[in-house]
Amino acid sequence: MKKRPDSRLSFRCLLVWRRNFSVYRRTWKISFLPPLLEPMLYILAFGMGLAAMVGELEISGRTLPYTRFIAPALVAIAIMQNAFFENSYNSFVRMYYQKTFDSLLATPLNLPEIILGEMLWAATKSAIAATLMSTVLLLFGQLSLPGALLVIPAALLGGLLFGALGMICTALVPTIEMFNLPIFLGITPMFLFSGTFFPLQNLPAWAQALAALLPLTHLVALVRGCTLHLWSASLWQSLLYLFLATLLLLPLAIRLMVRRILR
Amino acid sequence: MDILRAENLRKGFGTLKAVDGISFSVRRGECFGLLGPNGAGKTTCIRMLYGYMVRDGGDLCLFGLPIDSNLRQIKARIGICQQEDSLDPDLRVRDNLIGFARYFAIPRREAESRADELLRFFALESRANARILSLSGGLKRRLMLARALVNRPDLLILDEPTTGLDPQSRQLLWDRLSDLKAEGLSILLTTHYMEEAARLCDRLLIIDHGRILVEGAPSQLVREQVGRQVLEVPRPDEKVRRFLMEQDCRVEDLGRRLLVHLDEGDELFLKLSREIGCEGCMLRPATLEDLFLKLTGRELRE
Fold first, then answer.
1. Helical ranges in B156-287 per DSSP H
2. How far apart are CA B140 and CA A99, in angstroms?
3. Tell me, what's the pLDDT at B302?
4. Best interface-test mutation with B: which of A1, A4, A6, A255 has the largest number of B CBs within 10 A?
5. Last residue of a domain, which of B183, B218, B253?
6. Tens of pLDDT, residues A46-103
7. Residue B102: closest CA among chain A residues belongs to which residue?
8. Is A193 inside any structural domain?
9. Residue A1 pLDDT > 50, yes or no?
10. Is the dihedral of CA A95, A96, A97, A101 positive or negative?
11. Does the residue A41 lie in any domain?
């Protein structure tokens, strides 16, 4: 007759979000640098270096310079990485080394609220990074308005999804070094094979089918479609995929963390 | 009135029964101690009180409310100082207190005034803007305790509050805890320092292997279970041993040392040092430590 832990969610999860936000605000000068500089580096390397060799691509009946093709993918990758790393390494440090969740449990907060607050924060961090990057890319003329404004909701959704994936890893890894495994097996392949740096149509059919299962594929498709005004019905499919996956993984992450921490 | 009532608490990890049927209650305004060697089940008991550990069985009521259906309200009224340092290293000293107050929905201005008050109380004012990583163990402990008081709790729960501290920090914490008790705060404390328990606790429980060994007021327990005085005989020879054997008293043989438990030991002490010529004998009051070792044994735990 084991007692069930309290698991009702409330607005209090925003208190956890606020703690992380206020720490972030204190170091914003450093936190802002990567999303501002990274796209410039990529545009330099790919736009001037590689694009000269690749030339132009034809996507959905439109001809695009290579740099414009990868620009939205850079944003999508940043969304994935910011949220995933926040809820893997950073959340693990707060949980394991800093005992933050232990101290929060001594307040009226319960564990599901703490975990949800962490994931909401990761999504916010993704949205901040994506917004900064998109602004730079807009200034370089790589994205189109007003579609680029949709990056913000897309980043929140994608951030929640990849945050949940990071949190699931945090719930499962025994030590912090073990994060290398999901990164090597999941994040890196997604970085390369989600229609980021080349169109998926270049791959054999079986590989295309595999890529269609990857969440980053759908985030890239959504961000690219919106920011380059490449509207098509398949964007709804990608949105639905991201939405359903988030709906599934968010509660799973909370449940696994409760299982890990509350014994 | 009982501020906390625990009945038949049970918690196991695999085959290990960490807490195996413990019942106790804390009255309003008293300091109650949970004593036991390492691994006795003290921390497990504490963790069940704030939902960090899910108990296998037993009833828990705080402030007259059953814990399962009222955990949030209960947690708003207790202050918990965990054994391990869980301060927020990303925030400065004062911000640790203000930030923590936020979780209790304490308005900003009120939180600031409480933080300043607590910093003064624990002599931390000069460190208000220090980084957590720059604090010594003693300062961290004081800040942990200050943080546990930020919601003005009705019950303060302390898990080994002075483990690893230097004598100065320990004395300061004991003084502050005595002040708080004098103000009427109820305190539940775990410790394995008998001096601490004897000094602070009105009543206590000694537990081992997840079970209760004794319960009561410290001085009374010592008197009942080990007597008033202890005669320590270092390096006893045959003559001394034979002499003590003939006396009507309880002798504990530690090999190189004998402990004689007595209610009134002056006479025996004089006889032993004058007539038997035993040197280095010492007659001292019986302490909680004598009781603790008698009950939990002398062999090492870990």
1. 167-182, 194-200, 218-226, 238-246, 266-274
2. 14
3. 62
4. A6
5. B218
6. 877 887 788 888 887 788 888 889 999 999 999 999 999 999 999 999 999 999 999 9
7. A15
8. yes
9. no
10. positive
11. no
- Whether cis (ω within 30° of 0) applies to the bond prior to A146 is yes
ipTM of this predicted structure? 0.86
Taking CA A245 as the corner, what is the angle to CA A242 and CA A247, rounded to the nearest 5 degrees? 105
- Smallest CA–CA distance from B13 into chain A, residue: A263
Instruction: Confirm whether B141 is domain-assigned.
Output: yes
CA distance A128 to A148: 14
Structure-token pair, residue B37 = 């060697």
Q: Are residues B214 and B276 in the same domain?
A: no
Give chain A's domain count.
1
Find the mean pLDDT for residues B260-269. 79
Q: Are B128 and B156 in contact (CB under 8 A)?
A: no
**In Å, what is the CA distance from B173 to each residue of A76, B79, B162?**
53, 16, 8
Round the average pLDDT of chain B to a whole number and report it.
Answer: 89
User: Is it the case that residue B257 has pLDDT exceeding 60?
Assistant: yes
For the segment A220-235, the average pLDDT, to the nearest whole number, is 93
Q: Are the C-beta atoms of residues B163 and B83 closer than 8 Å to each other?
A: yes
Are B279 and B162 found together in one domain? Answer: no
The residues of B whose Cβ lies within 8 A of any Cβ of A are 13, 50-57, 68, 71-73, 75-76, 78-80, 82, 84-91, 99-100, 102-105, 147-148, 151
| pLDDT tops 60 at residue B63 | yes
Q: Are residues B67 and B199 in the same domain?
A: yes
Given its phi and psi angles, is residue B253 left (phi above 0), alpha (psi -120 to 50 degrees) or beta?
beta
What pLDDT was estimated at residue A4? 59
Check CB contact under 8 Å for B90 and A23. yes
Instruction: Identify the domain containing residue B275 by its residue range.
Output: 228-285
DSSP B21-47: EEEEEEETT-EEEEE-STTSSHHHHHH
Structure pTM? 0.90
pLDDT tens string B278-293? 777 888 888 888 888 8
B188 and B48 within one domain: yes
